[in-house]
Design brief:
The protein folds into 2 domains: 250 residues, Bira Bifunctional Protein, Domain 2 (BirA Bifunctional Protein, domain 2), CATH 3.30.930.10; 106 residues, CO dehydrogenase flavoprotein, C-terminal domain (Enolase-like, domain 1, 2-Layer Sandwich), CATH 3.30.390. It is built from 14 helices and 15 strands. An 8-stranded mixed beta sheet has the order 7-8-9-10-6-2-1-11, sandwiched between helices.
């Protein structure tokens, strides 16, 4: 039986709650710390965006500034969301050579989210796992989850038990084309996302939820959890490296700074035969593209959206693999498939053909985008 650490950080300020597991991952990856599960609640509200999302495309920054809401870019994919102390976070950090960790991301989600399902069922809710990374109750999502990799051989899975939801704030922090659209989005959120409080009519104490999580991990995964505290080295790494990275402009505005030469406008003619085109494509996940086209050739390409890619830092490599490609389906498909084959990336919820379909929308010069 594997022995894992269980660290309860209690209530923590947003940046610590959202990112401390990265410091732990650093130590787990080099073998200095055991596989670890972290439980934590953010002490105040904040906004979190996915690793591959463009900040200004997703978030109403003026509103966040007015409400003094910190905006944090997480290290996994997924979409933008509003978070507060009504969520209990679980953060799993484990080496890939652990017998508890499946090889594939799909299998990882299914195995570890069975613990999340266990917790909700113990609380009296008919929870079910929904591929790829959701837990639902009565047809509504009741847990958001993400996964990724770190270093040489460390796997990370993060998610939450939703005690309650502030639907107004959830819709208000997102950037939308109109207030009418925002109202529609808020109603949609209420229709498709739920919480323990909404389902049961009361909010269970967070300590009960944490106790059930620990019980679930031990029972379902067959591991032994030992209560522990972060090491001095983990605190040092978070303070000097993780915290500073997440506060940097290079991190917060990562996609935009990676492609400074691409304009923000949806379609701009730069010179004869040269234009900047932006399109969006909705598969299971949203894919945004901004490209510099020279005739029928991709001179430069920027991909963003709420999708997951493991490893996360593979996205710039995919962009590079597509540079100077002719905007023809056979050419684009060949390059995308070859990249998947040689890189070994996993994109749960999105397949190679989704990226090909998205890129081919550029051939419409953005006219069908939206």
């Amino acid at each position: 039986m594997e022995v894992w650490r269980l660290i309860d950080l209690g209530m923590a300020e947003p940046l610590l709650a959202q990112t401390f597991y990265e410091a732990v991952a650093n130590e787990v990856d080099r073998g200095a710390s055991k596989n670890t599960i972290i439980l934590v609640q953010p002490s105040s509200p904040y906004v979190c965006i996915g690793f591959h999302q463009e900040l200004e495309k997703e978030i109403d920054l003026d509103y966040c500034k007015k409400k003094k809401l910190m905006v944090i870019r997480r290290s996994q994919g997924g979409g933008a969301t509003y978070l507060d102390s009504d969520q209990v976070f679980y953060q799993v950090v484990a080496r890939g050579d652990s017998k508890t960790i499946p090889v594939g991301i799909h299998e990882l989600f299914e195995k570890f989210l069975s613990v999340t399902v266990f917790v909700y069922r113990k609380l009296g809710l008919p929870a079910e796992y929904k591929a790829i990374n959701d837990v639902i109750v009565n047809g509504r999502k009741i847990s958001g989850n993400g996964a990724g990799s770190f270093g040489k051989d460390t796997i990370i899975l993060v998610g939450n038990i939703i005690l309650d939801l502030d639907y107004n704030s959830m819709s208000r922090v997102l950037k939308v084309p109109s207030e009418k659209f925002r109202d529609k989005m808020a109603k949609s959120m209420m229709e498709w996302v739920t919480s323990i409080t909404r389902e049961l009519g009361y909010t269970p104490p967070p300590e009960i939820v944490k106790k059930l999580l620990a019980e679930g991990y031990e029972t379902i995964l067959g591991i032994k959890l030992v209560q522990d505290k972060p090491t001095n080295r983990e605190w040092e790494i978070w303070e000097s490296e993780v915290k500073q990275r997440h506060l940097s402009n290079e991190w917060v505005n990562m996609p935009e700074l990676r492609h400074r030469n691409l304009a923000i406008a949806r379609e701009v003619k730069i010179a004869e035969g040269v234009r900047i085109v932006e399109v969006t494509h909705k598969a299971n996940k949203l894919i945004r593209l901004r490209a510099e086209l020279v005739g029928n050739k991709l001179r430069d390409l920027m991909l963003s959206g709420d999708f997951f890619i493991v490893p996360e830092n593979a996205l710039p490599e995919l962009e590079s693999a597509l540079k100077d490609a002719n905007l023809e389906r056979s050419c684009i498909s060949r390059r995308v498939l070859e990249f998947y084959k040689t890189s070994g990336i996993q994109t749960p919820g999105v397949n190679p053909e989704d990226f090909v379909d998205a890129i081919m929308r550029l051939a419409d010069n953005g006219e069908k985008a939206g």
